[in-house]
Description:
The structure is a single chain. By secondary structure, the protein is an alpha+beta fold. The chain folds into 2 domains: 123 residues, Jelly Rolls, CATH 2.60.120.280; 116 residues, Arc Repressor Mutant, subunit A (Orthogonal Bundle). The chain has 10 helices and 8 strands. Strands 1-6-3-4 form a 4-stranded antiparallel β-sheet. It has a 4-stranded antiparallel β-sheet with strand order 7-2-5-8, with helices on one face. A hairpin with a 2-residue loop joins strand 3 and strand 4. It is globular, with a radius of gyration of 19 Å. The N terminus and C terminus are likely disordered.
Amino acid sequence: MRRPVPELRMDGQNGFYKIIWLSKGNGRVMIDGQTRGIGPNTFVFVPASIPHVFEVGLNTYGTYIAIDPTSKIQFPSHSFIFALLNIMQQTDISKTVDAIVSEAASELPGKEINIEALVQMLLVHILRLTGDKVENVKETSAQRLMRKFTRILEARYHSGSGLSDYADVLGVTTTHLSRVSRSMNGKSAGQLIQDRILSEAQFLLLNSDLKMQDISHKLGFNSPAYFTRLFNAKMNQTPKDYRKSRARGPEEVQRIRARGL
C-alpha cells in the first residue's frame, strides 16, 4: 500500500500481526466487530487472529506490515487505533516505517534481525505516545457482544450457520444482535455473515483451482446453485465469470486477502 489505489480491502485474520500506517487519505477499520473511520497520520495495530477489515478509498497512501507470530518481537496484547496530531511525531513514525520498508526490500546480511529491531522500536515508540489512552479503555456491553460475535463468526462462517444460530450461541435475539451490529458498523449481523462468506469465496476463486461445487461445500452451502445465486446477487457476476475476469496479480490478492469479515 505504498501508492494510491482505487480501492483496497484487507480482511481479517491469517495469523499475522498487522500494522497499518495511513499517511494520506481516509479509510475504515473494523476490529472485533467495531467500525471506525480513520484519517491521515493514523497508526493501527491488530494482534494475530483478531477478526478485522481494512478498507481504504481513492488516493490513499500508507504502509501495511504483516509480521509472523513466531517473530521474537514483543507485541502488545491489544489492538489499537491512534491518530498522531503532532508533526514531529508523525515524521518520526514515518521515518521508522520507511526504514522497515527499505530494509525489507534489501538483500543485505542480517536483514531479518534488523527488520525485527526496527518493528520493535516502532511499537515501543507508538506505545509511549499512546500511554494508557488505548490500554485502559472500558469495553461496553455492545462492544463485548460484537467482539464475541465476530470471533464466533470467524470460527464458524463455513459451517452453514445462520443468524439465529449465532444469536443462540450468544444468548441474545436476532433482532438485538442485528440492531447492535448496525449501530456499530452500519450493517446488520446478517450482512456481516454474508460479507465474510463472500470474502472467502473471492479468495478461493482467485487463489485455488477448486471447482464451484467444492467451494460451495467448503463454505457450508448444501447447494452449489444457491451459492452461485447469492454470489451473483452480491457481486453482479457468477463465480465462474468472476474467476475468469480477475487476474491473480498481487494487487487483487491483496485486495481480498488477510482474511476476515
